[in-house]
Amino acid sequence: MSMLAINGERLWQSLMDLAAIGATPKGGNARLALTALDGQGRDLVTGWMRAAGLSVTVDQVGNIFARRAGRNNALAPVMTGSHIDTQPTGGKFDGCYGVLAGLEVMRTLNDHGITTEAPLEVAIWTNEEGSRFVPVMMGSGVFAGVFALQTALSATDVAGKRVADELAAIGYAGDAEVGRKVGAYFEAHIEQGPVLEAEGNVIGVVTGSLGLRWYDVTVTGMEAHAGPTPMPLRMDALYGATFLMQEVIRIANDFAPHGRGTVGVVKVHPSSRNVIPGAVTFTVDLRHLDPVRLAAMDARFRAACAAVADGTTTGAALDVVVQDVQYFAPTPFAPELIRHVRQEAAARGYSHQDIVTGAGHDAVYIAGVAPTAMIFVPCKDGISHNEIEDAKPEHLEAGANVLLGAMVAQANASA
Amino acid sequence: MSMLAINGERLWQSLMDLAAIGATPKGGNARLALTALDGQGRDLVTGWMRAAGLSVTVDQVGNIFARRAGRNNALAPVMTGSHIDTQPTGGKFDGCYGVLAGLEVMRTLNDHGITTEAPLEVAIWTNEEGSRFVPVMMGSGVFAGVFALQTALSATDVAGKRVADELAAIGYAGDAEVGRKVGAYFEAHIEQGPVLEAEGNVIGVVTGSLGLRWYDVTVTGMEAHAGPTPMPLRMDALYGATFLMQEVIRIANDFAPHGRGTVGVVKVHPSSRNVIPGAVTFTVDLRHLDPVRLAAMDARFRAACAAVADGTTTGAALDVVVQDVQYFAPTPFAPELIRHVRQEAAARGYSHQDIVTGAGHDAVYIAGVAPTAMIFVPCKDGISHNEIEDAKPEHLEAGANVLLGAMVAQANASA
Q1: How many contacts, defined by CB atoms under 8 Å, are there between A and B?
Q2: For position A385, what pLDDT does the model report?
Q3: Locate the Peptidase M20 dimerisation domain: which residues (chains A, B) (predicted)?
C-alpha cells in the first residue's frame, strides 16, 4: 500500500492552473483573501474537488471541506489542507501546495479504487495570510476555538469592508458550524526556510512549531551633542542597546539548534548625525521548540537588560523598559503522526530529516484540537512570501507521496 | 590693569533685553537669521554699540563690526564676537553671550577711560546657526574665505527667499568688503557641553577645536524570516552592524580624553519585527583634537569594518560599504592667546581648566585667518540648542572679565 504513488504531473498542472488566477508579472501570485480572485481560485479548486467525487461543504467562516467517504463514516476524518489565499506579492506554492497535494491524494485513491477505513477530507482554510484581514490564520483559528466566529466575521480591511460581507460577495458564506472533531490532521507545505536545501534533504519531518516571545525594548539615556560631550559623561542609549541586540543573538546561538533570536526593528531618537541617542526602541523575537528552554531564554534576556540598566554592562546606568508584546507557546506535533511521516519518507527512499516550523501555519492552530503533523519540502533559497518563491516538481511530488502514504496509514489505523 | 572688572548686572540686563526679541513661551529664543526678529535684535545691539561710541560697519554678507579706536589705529584690530541668530527653539546665551560680553568690555573701558594700543572690535557674524540658511557659520566662513560671498548671498531658505534679499529687507546688506586683517580674535561662549559643570570649574581655556570625520556605513546581509531560518544560516546585517557601532565608542574611549565617537542615526531594512535585517545604514561621527590621532581612529574603524565584511567578527561575511561624508581638520588655537586667557583666569582666581570645543563656532573659521582663542563658561546640564538653555550670571560675568583682561593684554602687547 505504501508504494502507491501520486501523479506528479497532474499535481504540477493543478498548481500552475491555480497560479494563473491572480498571476503577477514577476511570476508570483496576488490573490488576497476574499477578493474576487480568491473567489475564482476557490471556484476552480472546488470544481476539481467535485469532479473528483468529493462532497464539498463550506462553514460559516468560509473554510471549505472536501470529503471522501471511508468504510466507517462514523470515524472522525483524517484531514489535510492548507490555504489558497496569498500575500500581495506572494508565490505559487505557499499554501496552494498543501491544498492541491491533498486533492492529488484523493485523485490517486480514486484512480486505484481504494477506500480507507476512516473518511478523508481536504480543507481550504480562510485567510491564512492575514494580508487583508487580521487575525492571521483566521479560518483555522476560529475552527480551533482560538478566537470567536464574530471576531473574524466583523474584521475589516483598510477600505472598511467586512469579512462577513466579502464572504457573501464571493459566494463562500457557508452555513456549516465552525469546528468539529478531526481524527488527525496533516499539512504539506514548502519549508519557507533554508534548512532542507542546505542539508540536501527532500522531506522535512516536522516535529513541532517553535514557541515565540516578542518584546519591545526601550533604552533611555541622555540626548547630548556629539562634539562637546566627552565619552565618560555620556549616557548613550544606543551603545547600551547594542549589547542587548547582540545578547539576543548569543542567547539563540547558545540554545541551538532550536533557538532563534532576531532584532528586526530599531528606532533611534532623535536620530541626528551629531546627537548622542537619548532613546532607542527595538523589537526582540525569541523562539524555541521547548517551553522550558524558551523560558530560560526569556530569563537570560531580562538579566541582560538589568545589567545594562544598572550600568554593569557599559559603565553608564540607563533606563531599560521591556514590554511583552506576544507569546505563543511551543506546539509539539503528535508522535504517532510524525512517525507515519518519517516511515513513509524512509520507505520511499526520500532523504529526510526532522525539522521544526518557525513560521505560523494553519496546522499550528489545528494541533490544539487534533493530532497534527506537517510535511515540508524544500523551496529555492528558502525564499517565500515573494514572487520569486520556487520549488522543484520532484520535491512537490515526493511530499505528496509522503502525504498520501501517511494519510492512508492513519485512516486505516483508525479501524 | 588685569583687575579691571566688567559690570555683571549690565551684561545680564543686556542679555535679557536682547532675549525679549523673539522670546518663546518656554523661556528660549526663536530669532532665526535674517528674519525681521533678527533685524530687531541687530538694531538693538548696534544701537547699544553706537551709544557706547563705537563705529559700526556692515559688510556685504551682513557681518557687523563695532570698532573702538586704539592709540595706533594702523594696527590690525583685536576682535571679539559671536552671533545673535538662534535655533528655532534656541536659548538666550548661545552666541548672544559672546557679542554682549564683547560690548560689555567696550563699555567697561569707556567707564574707566582706557584706551588700548591696538583698536578693538566686536563682531556680530551673520547666520551662525544655519537653521534657516546653509552653510552654517555663514558670515565668519565668508570672512575667512572658506566659501565665496556669492555662495552665501544666493543661499535660499525653504520658502525660496535669498540671503541677499533678506539682508536688504532688514537693512543689513552692507557695502564693506568681506574679510580683512585681524590681529587677534577671542570668542566667549557657553560651553554647550557638560565638562565645566562636571569638574566644578568656571572658566574653560579652549585650546582648540576637534577635527571630525563623518561616515555613512551600510552593512548588507540577507533578509529572511525570523522563524524558519536557523542561526547558522543567517546573514544578519544588524548583528554585524552592532559590532561596528560598539567599536566607534571603544575607539573614542581608547583615544581619551579628546576622542569622541557617536552613532546617531540607524536605519534598518526592511524593519519588520519578524524579518532578519537585510541591510542596516548608520552614521558615524569620529572626532579628535590631534589630526594624527584622528587618522589613527579612522584607520582603526576601517579595519573593524573589514573584519565584519570578511566574517572575522561574526562568522558570517557581510557587505560593508563606508562612505566618507565630511572631514573637518582639527583646529589648534593660538598659544599666545590661550596663554592670555589662562593667565587672566588664574589672576582673577577663577577655577579653570583647559578644554576643547567639539561644537562648531565662528572662532573655528576665524582661526584659519587670525590668531584665535575661546573662553568657555558653564551652561546648566551642558544643554544648548534648547529653550531651557541656562547659565549663571556670575559665570557669565567671570567669562567677560577674562575676555576683558585678555583683549586688553593682547591689544597692548601689539605695541
Answers
A1: 185
A2: 86
A3: 208-309
